[in-house]
Each structure stands twice: as C-alpha cells, then as structure tokens.
Amino acid sequence: MSLSELAAQHGLTVSGARPPLGAYVRQLWARRHFIAAFATARLTAQYSQARLGQLWQLMTPLLNAAVYYVIFGRLMGTGKHVEDFVPFLVTGVFVWTFTANSIMAGARAISGNIGLVRALHFPRAALPVALALQQLQQLLFSLGALAAILVCCGQPPRASWLLAVPALALQAAFNTGLSMAMARLAAGAPDIAQLMPFLLRTWMYASGVMWSIRATVADAHLPHAVVLALQCNPAAVYIDLVRFALIESYDKAQLPPHVWALALGWGVLLGAGGFVYFWAAEERYGRG
Q: Where are the domains of the chain?
C-alpha cells in the first residue's frame, strides 16, 4: 500500500489543500470578525508614525486634487470646458483613489504578510478582502471632507446624494475582486507590485479624473473602438455615477441608463471572477 493510500485510509489530507469553493466561502465567512479587525488595525496603524496621523487619509487625495487643479484646471485650461470643475475634480480624485489604493494593497496582500501566510492556516482570501475593506473604511472616513468641499462649492445636499451609496457599493465589489486577482498575480510574480504605479497612472489618465470623457468624445473624432473603451472603462463608470449623484450640474447631463448596467456588470464580473481566480491558486500561496 502506498503512502497516499495509507493516508487516505486514515482520513489524512494534504496540509494547505484547497477546499471546495462552497466550503472555502463558509471558512471565509467564519473569519469575518478577523477580517474586520485586521482591516481596522491596518487603517489605524497606517499613519501612526506621522505627526498628523489619520489626517493624511484626507490630505493625500486633497493634495493630489490641488496639484491636478493647478496643472489641468489652470495651466492646461481643462476646467474651462467643465462646469463646476472643482467638485468635478475632487469627486473624481476621491473615487479614483479608492480603486487605485485597493489594487495596490491587493498586490502586496500575500508578499506583505508572508509570515502570517506561512505560520497559520486560514483562507488566504481573508488578506486581500481585509485590505480592500481597509480602503473602503478609509473612503468612508474621507467622504465627510468631500461633502464639506461640495457644500463650500455650492453643491448643497440633495436626495440624489443617496445614489452614491449603491454606486460605491458596486465599486467596492469591483475593487475587492480586482484586489484578489492582483494578489494572486503578485504572489507568483512580485515584480508586478513595482509595475502597478505606472499602469495605474495610465489608467487614471484614461478614466476622466481631470477631464470630461463625454465632452472629449463629443468634440473629437475618435475611432469607435476608442470611444467604446472610454465609455466602458470601469473606473470612469464609477466616477461618473458618483459625480451624477453629488454634483447638480452633472445631474442635468442625463447620465445614460446603460451606465448602471455597466457598473453592476463590472462589480459582479470582477467580484465573483476575482474571488474564484484567487481561490484556484489557494495551495500555492506561501510556498517557495
């Protein structure tokens, strides 16, 4: 009798073997309290060494928005073609930062916690999910500042602001799935984490953070494939939805109804697909 047959006869299994998908989901749900505590602890410790502490959660996107305002709004004149440019820009920066930070956190989810991965047995998806939750917590913390900026810029609270809730929920599902996909890719090829800032910067410029995709598409004679790619860009879709919810002048632009369908499709596709893609390599994490 071989060793594998002997082990099977006595109910022994391979250490770290990948469980079925349903069992894996149940294991992950059973550790939901750990995921929430881990995300909160990481958020609290993120700026613990800085004098301004948690204020950097607000200052980082605001400083980025200020730089983009000077470059694109003033020097390049982009703001002349966009109504309510400051609310338009700040909203885009906050929403984009949510996606970009989630992806960067996912790329380091395994390599940045390799000691934990090798020492303890738990569903590895808990790490990228927790880090995506950390970014959601940071966004929620920052929304108060975003609301204050909008009010100061003449955008009083309206009932349509509630539409930002489902838009950000779908974006969170998209971000979590993409974070898990990046966690698997970076676990096998750590250099991806070094490449991500350049890829994210390119994606940001194509997502209408500091310029209006709708105005550009209307004015420029672009190939149909380019127009379709810009309009279906998931980052641009979520940014558009939040702008539609928060900015009164954007509300009048009559956001096309297919944008909600795109947001739902991207959220489900990446949320479920990224989870399954990560689960399929469960046995490899922490080895080598």
A: 20-280
